[in-house]
Design brief:
The complex is a heterodimer of chains A (378) and B (402). Chain A has 378 residues and is of the alpha+beta class. Chain A contains 6 helices and 30 strands. In chain A, the strands form 5 sheets. Chain A has a 9-stranded antiparallel beta sheet. A 9-stranded antiparallel beta sheet of chain A has the order 17-13-14-15-29-28-27-21-25. Chain A has a 5-stranded antiparallel beta sheet with strand order 7-1-9-10-11. Chain B has 4 domains: 107 residues, Reverse transcriptase/Diguanylate cyclase domain (Alpha-Beta Plaits); 67 residues, MutS, DNA mismatch repair protein, domain I; 49 residues, DNA polymerase, domain 1, CATH 1.10.150.20; 109 residues, DNA polymerase, Y-family, little finger domain (Dna Ligase, domain 1, 2-Layer Sandwich). Chain B is built from 17 helices and 14 strands. Classes of the chains: A alpha+beta (378), B alpha+beta (402). At the A-B interface, strand 30 of A face strand 14, helix 15 and helix 16 of B.
Amino acid sequence: MKITIDREALVQSVQDVMKAVSSRTTIPILTGIKITATSQGVTLTGSDSDISIESFIPTEEEDKVLVEIAETGSIVLQARFFSEIVKKLPEKTIEIEVHPNFLTVIRSGKAEFNLNGLDAEEYPRLPQIEEENVFKIPTDLLKTIIRQTVFAVSTSETRPILTGVNWRIEDEELICTATDSHRLALRKAKIETENHQSHNVVIPGKSLNELSKILDDSNDPVNIVITANQILFKTKRLLFFSRLLDGNYPETSRLIPTDSKTDIIVNAKEFLQAIDRASLLAREGRNNVVKLTTLNDGIIEISSVSPEIGKVTEEIQSESIEGEELKISFSAKYMMDALKALDGTDIKISFTGAMRPFLLRPLHSDSMLQLILPVRTY
Amino acid sequence: MEATRQKYGRVILHVDCNSFFASCEIARDPSLKDRAVVVAGDPKERKGVVLAANYIAKQRFGIYTTMPLWEAKKRCPHLVILKPDFHLYRDISEKVFQFLKTFTPVLEPASIDEGYLDITDCYSGGSPLGIAEQIQKGLLKTLHIPVSIGIAPNKFLAKMASDMKKPLGITVLRKRDVPKILWPLPVQQMHGVGEKTAKKLNDIGIFTIGELAKAEKVILQNLLGVNGVRLKERANGVDPRPVDPEEGRKWKYIGNSTTLSRNVTEERVLLEVLRALAQSVSQRMKQKRVVSSTIQIMIRYSNFQTITRSKTWENPVQEAEEIFQRAVYLLKRHWNGNPIRLLGITAVDVFDKKEAVKQLDLFHFEEDAKKEALWNTIERLQQKFGDGIIQKGVELFRRQKR
């Protein structure tokens, strides 16, 4: 293999595939990046066997030459060194040449690195996915959906299935659910599928976080294919494979309350700022808990007491309070996470009692809901 | 001055609010000042008892705390009877401590209406007597709360001293005064000696503080445990406890361990031992009304290699079964299978149950939600009558047993 490649394009691609490379892996070759040169261009691959990312650099893009292929072939190079080297090379182009015994020479200007490579034949094959039953989601919408749900996944391995986001596709609708059993985030979106497919899968939260980092903010469509144990996200230059989680996602829809005893309408941004202030003291204390009390005339009191530090009280004017009086305590962190996901619009919070889950929803849309379990104080 | 104080050791004040609840009521409504005032359970209820009485009620009519209300009324037909307002008392209590803090940060609130101050290093504030006068006058003038103050070289003597002159007393109690002033007093007047301890002491012929001071250490230890030794020291005017502003807030732990009668490798036996340890740790936690999120186990192998392993969970626990489960979790993870000689369980960083919260769980919240109505009722009762008004039968039983 012998190629001359645009440094900027290479740096970008290396950065993308590095998201999948782990320094801790049981398969030593996966600490490397696989580089494959064909007549169409260069493909870089990184994988930790849960997530695999392929980034493609075409020979030409918009009349600009990105790669010149002198000789096709492939090689695996240590990701840690290779990514640092390409970032620091001086010139606009980089020459990569593989000699016998996988010795690889990387040149740019007068700098020359000799790296010991590994046989690309040893690199595990990526899952082969038939591109049937593809459905499309605009990139920016996909990123929003991920941001609004993935924060709620569990970080504990006690129930591994909860470390993922449940994607259900039915009747041209995607329903994404994440819960760590203390709060739940749910987001719906209309999508177009071929042949009215339906799916019910659980995607690891970590995969979605990494995916979100390497997607741009365009509204170009992302093609998605779901198989029995893999999901593939495909953009113009990227392939992103993730393993799916085994097991059944718990049935959560029946746990979402349908009635309510107290409804509050409030601006999410103002409410978020008040919770943030109230939790200033609480997060230093033993637990990050704030208390919400409904007062007269649509006033909500937010308060928090940390015995060793002090206490804080703030009154907020809501748009309206309807129903029974309420005193409820909850984690300030969960509330802030939910409010951030709701993007600062006017929201409706529906309570059914101090010991029961409550719901936060945008006032004029049913595409999203955030559910939080309160804390019991003694 | 500085040298003198160092020579004589520490200077501790005990500030004790006089008839606190009644004083708060009079501070709110000064027109009650010259009348007999009591705060009582429920004035309409025949079974109500006096929770606090002002000095007019006490001295002129012989009314005392815990006297049945009907009897108080008989003694003083025009008695002013007020319902307790714990919000007011807590509020004024906080203000009292804030005022005391302006003299020294070394302030330890001992209850809602009393606290200790270490003024050893307050050279600039004046003489100890001068500082005590400033405190007494200041509290009376700004908050209308009368206090009695004891001045002494340690907490015990300060507490005894503040009790000697009420209301509005200031009493200095030096260590050298102990034989003359404290020793003739009956032993139950000593702070730390309750009805039961007094009876036990009386049974072995100790009736005065002086007799306690001179009693054999071994006999007291056999009768009352470590507390017996401590009481003897105090009767001699010795009390090394520092004034600790963090008292009751510090990192604390409750633990038990057992040396096994032989080296054990059977898991079944180890689990039995853990269960018993969890029982006793839980029982002690309940006595102190504390909970803990962090459970630690100690394993000593037959070769005396000793390890401790702990884990912090999200929700704090107090029940034996929960402590047991967490200890088992730790044992299964950290026991290397070698013969074990000693096992221990410790609840690390215990804290007041009232500070505890439980994050409810989407899949199990119904268990807590079912009891919500009950808890609401309890909360309303506590707001109205104070935290002690209602508690679990088992807790009450346990306290009575003690």
